[in-house]
C-alpha cells in the first residue's frame, strides 16, 4: 500500500508540469454572440479553462497565466437596421472536379465518380462592395453553402471510327504502300485512354524492279521564303529606299545610300529588300538530285507600329452612372508615331479605360410638385345629355403632380440642401419614382342639420345675484347634427327664449318616497314627498338658496295584497303636445299605468280604465318666442389695430400669414313678426359679432431652376438644344404669378468642329528589283527587268495644309493609303504600253458607258504578240455612274402614330398640354433604296425621312351612352309601402376601350328605386243588392228549389274614414314589421361617388298581409310608415392614367433589314369602378430605314500555289472584296468601292496562308475529317454538361516505307456544340463458330466504333471447356462447352455431369455407328440434342465391353413383375 501511495504522489507531481491552457475549439468554448452597442462597439466572450494533459479540467492557478488566451475581444455588433447595408455575394459553381483520393479507374467505375463543386461566398458591404466578416451577414440569413457534391462521369476512352478501305497500289514494279485511315468520333475525357493511331500502312505485293530499270519521276521542291533583308551596300543604288516623312509636307523621296548593313533608320521609313528560297529536284523515291537553284523576290523590311508613352490618367468621371452603384471611369491615351510597314506588328489600343471611385454620394434624388386640384368625373348613370354640369362636382376623383429627378445642391456654409433644385435626367435617380397621381375626395356641399327642439326649461333670471323673483327667460335649445360643408348659409338659430316673471336661480325638486303601510305588509298606507334644492344646472345646492322650505306632504297610497289587483308604476310624463298655448290649442301631457295582475276571488278589484290615465296642462305660455338672429360672416379683413402683417408663405409650408377679423350683425327677432329690441332676448346667449380669422396666405408661384441644356444632337453638326423648368406651386391669393416660359429652345452654340485631317500621297518611287548579285539566271544574262516593288511617301496634313502628326490622321482620316505596291519593269521582249488615259466624259443618260485607252510603245508596236487585244487590251469600257435610285418598301407598316402630342419626353419633363390618344395619325413603312445596278444605298437618297407615310386613324374610345331618366312610376303598392321606379336604357354600347356600362338587366336597362307609401283607406268594396232567385231547372213546374242569385261588387275610391268593426272574429295572428326594398344609394347634391344613404319604409302589417287595427299600430308608434336608412358607398369612377410616350429607342440594328425602333408608356394609375380601362397597346414599333451594310467578303482559299515548282512550300490566297448587303439571311451581296468598308484587315493574316504540297517520299497530313455528330456527356441517360462536343482529326500519311518511323503523329480538334444527343456504347458479337466469334463495339445509333465500350464487360471471343478435355478420344463441344467423345466412342459421365472417360462401342469397328454415341449421329459436330440429353444417357457396358451387373438385376426384376401381373389377372377372373 505504501508503494501505491508513493506512485500516486509522484504522478501528481509529474502532472503539475503538464497543465496548460487550451484554446482548441474541440475543448475551449466557442466565441459567444456579439453584445453591446450597434456597430464596432460590441464585445464577445468565450470560456477559457485550464486542462490537464490527460484531458481533465483543473484550477486556473495550475496553468501559466502568461499563456492564458484572451476571453473577450471587440466585435461588430449587428443590428436589424444593418440589413440594408450588407449582403451575401455568391459566385457561380465551378466545374465539378474529382475528390482527391477518390479517383476510380475505368475498370472500377460503373456509372459515375464522386466529385465536388466549389464557389465563392463573401459578405459584402453594399455601399463600396468591400468584404467584411461573414458573421455580419449570418446575423440576417445563414451563409450559403460553398461546396456541394456532384458526379463526374467515368473515364471515357477515345472513340474512333472503323478503318476505311485500303488505298490502291501503284502500277509498275516499284515498291509502294497501301494506306487506310479512321477518324476520331469522341475525344478522351475524364482521364480516359488516348486516341490510337489513325492510319495504317502496308507494302504492296508488287515485284521488285530489275536493277537499272527503276521507274522514277522528278519534281522541283520549293523551300520556304527566307527573312527579308537589305541588299549589300554596293547594291544600294539598285535597291534604294524611300523615307516616309511624317513631319514635313515636301513629299519628296529621300534616297540615300546605305552606310552600313543595318544603320539606325528614322521612324516610318519604308525599306525594300529581298528574300530568297531554295529549290531542289526530288526523285520519286525521296532522294535529292544535285540541282539546287535559289530564287529571289523583292520584299518590304517589316517595321512595327511605334506609339508614344501613355498620357496621365484623366480624373474620375461618370456620365449616366451618377447615383448608381456602378463605379466611375478614367482614361488615358497614346499617339501613333509611326505606322506599321510590311508584316510589322499592328498598332495596339490607343485608349485605355479603367474603373475608379469618384467618391461622395450621388447628389440626385426624386422631387415632386404640390398636388393639383382634385378632378372628379361623372358616373355614367349621372350623365345628363341635356345638362352638362361639371361645376360643383364632388366625391371621388384623381389628382396629379409632377415627379422629377433633381440635383441636390448644398448651400455654402451650411449642410442643408437647397429647397428648389435643378431637374435632371430621370436615369440619374436611384430607386422607383414616387407616384404621380393618387385618388382623392372632394367634399360635397352639405346643409346644416339640427335636432328637434328640447323641452322648455324653467324660468331663469339673467343673473343669479338676486336670489328670488325678478324677470327672466324660459329657453329651449337644439343641437347641430350635421355641420354645413361649403354652404353659403350657416345653421339656423339654436336657442329660443320666452320672457317670464318670478325667475328663480334655484328651485325645489320634489320626489316621492316609498309607500309605507299603516298596518301589516299590505293595504292602505302613505308616502312622504322629499324636496331637494337644485340650481338651474341641475346641481344640488344648500336649502337656503331656494324659497321657503316646503312642508313635507304625506300622500295616501296602497300596497296591494296577494289577492288584490296589481298595478304598475306611473310612466314618465309624455312630451308636451304643443310647444305653446293659444286660443285654439293648449299643450297637454299624459302618463299612464297598466294592470299587471287581475284580482283573485275575494281580492280588491282593479280601478276603472279612466283611473289608469292622468293628464295635465303644459307649455301654458303664449306662442310668442324670441331668438337671436345673425347675418353671415364677412370676409376676413386686416385688423388695423393688430400688428400682424400679411406675408408670403414659403414653399416649405411654414405659415407666415397675418391674423384678421370677421364681423356680422346680431339682432333679436320675434318669431311672429320681425326684429325687436335686444332686451327681449337673453343677453347671456347673445352670439359674438366679431371673431379673429387667418388672412388668406398669399402664395407665390414656385418653379424649379432651368434644367441643363440638352446636348447638341451631333458633335460636329449644327442642331438645337432645349431646357425646361417645372412649376412646384401655383400662385394664389394675389401672389406672384407663374412665368409664361417653362420651355426654352436655342440653336447650338460653340459646336465643336470635327478636326479635318487628310492623307497626302506622293509619287511612287522607281520599281526596285532584286539586286543582280542575288538573282540567278543563264550565264551572260544581266538584264534588269521583271517584278519588283515600289514605295511612296504618305504625309498627314491638317485642314489648313500644315503638317500634322500621323496619329491625328490615323484617328480622323481613316485608313492610310498603301505605302508599297507591286510593279513590273518590262524586259526587252515584253510588250510595253503608255499609261491609261482618263475615262471619257459621261452624258446624263444612265445607259451610256465611258472608256479609256492606252497604246503600244517602242518595239512593241512591231511585235505580233503585242497586237493581240485579247491578251493585251488597249481599250477598257465601263458603265457610267448613274444617279437614279429606286425605293422599295421593306417590312411591315408601323403602328398608327399620333403626332402633335407631348411625346418623346424624358422622365420628369413636364408635358405641354394633354396628349392626343386618338384621331388622325400616320403609319410608317421603311424603305430600302437601290441604285440602277441593284446595290443598296443610303435611304436618304430616295426619301428624306427614309419612310413611306400613309394616313391612318386611331379610333377614339366611345363610352357607354345611356338615355335620360324616365319619369317616376306610380307606387307599386296601392295600399301600404311600395317602391317607385325610374330607368335609363342603353343607347350605345362602349367600344374602342370606352367606359363600360353599369350592370344592366336583360332589357339593357338600369333602374333606380325609392320607397313610397299609399294610404290603405282610400279604396273600398261597394256591394249591390242580391238579384231575385232564379230556378235553374225549367221542368220544375212548382217554381221552387235551388237557384242562383247575383249581385254587383265594385272597388271604389272613397274619402279617408275610420270603419267600426261590428262583428268580432277570433283567430290566431301575429304582428310583424314589414319593410319595402332598399332604394338605390342616394348621394348628396352634385356628388358623383362616395358615401351615400339608402332608404326604405317600415310599416305595421299582419303576417297574412291584412290591415291591422289602428289602435295596435298606435301603441307601436307606427300609425304611419317610418322611413329608415343605412349608409352605402357608390364606387368612384377612376380612368386609367398613362405616362407620356417615351422617346423612340435606337434602332436594334445599325444597318440592314429587320431593325426595329420601339417606344413605350406605362400605367400610372389603373382604372377602377366605371372608369375607362387601360388600352392594350403600351408599346409601339416601327421598322428602321434599311441602311446599307458594308463588310469585307473573303473568297474561298485557292489551291496551294507553287511558283516555279511542283511540291514544297507554297501559298494559298483568297480575295477580299467590299460588298454591300441588307444583313438578311437571303441577302445577296454586291461589290462596291473598298473605301466604303473602312479600314482594311491585315492582308498577311487574312488573305494569305502558307501551305505545302508533299513531294514524293514525304510524309504529309491528311485533310481534316468531317466534324463528328454532337455528343453529350451523359450519366444514366441525362446530360452532365449543357453543351456537347464535336471532334475532327487528321493524321500523317507515309509515302515511303523508309520514312515510316519518322512519320508519326496526328492532330485532333474539339469544339463545343449545341443540340447534342446522349449515346450508349454496347458490345456486339457474332454467333459462335468453332468456339470462336467476332466481338465489336457499337454506338446506339448503329455506328461501329473502336473504344467507348467498357473492357470489363467485353464478351469472350474464344470459348474454352472448363475443365480442359484431356481424356483420350475427347473433344470440346460447341453448344455447351463441355467435353464429349469422338465418333465411335460413348461417354461415361460422372455424378456431377462431367465426362469421366470415353468407351469404344464394341462390334462396330467404325462400320455402323451406335446411336448412343456422339459419332453415331448424322451430324455429330452440330448435334444439339445429344449435348442436351447427354447427362441422362445410361451406359450398360463396362470399359471391357461386358454387361454391368445392374443390367442383370433389372432384367430379373422385370421378369418377376410380369409373373405378378399374370397371377393377379388370373385371380380376378
Automatic annotation (TrEMBL):
Query: Quick check: keyword Metal-binding in the entry?
Result: no
| Any GO BP annotation | cell differentiation
The annotated region (Disordered) lies at: 246-267
Please give the start and end residues of each transmembrane region: 1445-1468
- What residues does the Thrombospondin type-1 domain cover? 1363-1403
Q: Which UniProt keywords apply?
A: Angiogenesis, Cell membrane, Cell projection, Differentiation, Disulfide bond, Glycoprotein, Membrane, Repeat, Signal, Transmembrane, Transmembrane helix
Q: Where is the signal peptide?
A: 1-18
Q: Which residues form the Spondin-like TSP1 domain?
A: 158-209, 565-623, 701-754, 960-1005, 1136-1189
Q: Which SMART domains match?
A: TSP1
Protein name in the entry? Thrombospondin type-1 domain-containing protein 7A
